Known about the structure:
Elements: H1 3-16, E1 21-25, E2 28-31, E3 42-46, E4 49-58, H2 64-77, E5 83-87, E6 90-98, H3 104-126
Antiparallel strand pairs: 1-2, 2-3, 3-4, 4-6, 5-6
Amino acid sequence: MDHSQGKNKIEQYLIDSALSYREISENMWLLEDGEHNLTGLAIMYDDPLVIFRIVVMDVPAGNRLELFTKLLELNAVDILHGAYALENGEIVLINTHDYDTMDLGEFRSTLDSFSLALAQHYPVLSGYRT
């Protein structure tokens, strides 16, 4: 599949979802939508995947075992689409979809899941900072 087709589909979904965003490089968009707790959410198209990724916070120096346990618990019981992960000293929320099978409903479900997780979990997770 050619990247321009992916770009067109993803941009159309962003427009249909009425979200503020900007294209930051070829096949990568950054949401700027504070109303839905999605500011900083990057959406990348890397054929055949669409990758959703947002930095939640830096990994703190202390309370790591308790924090990592909490992240795994949240992954297991409280996130419908996506998962928390560790990347380069940061806690990120990430999800992927296969471009060919992703429809607007799945796209929006990921955004809704991220928005809800950030609103509900960030106050809890930020308490682990030292």
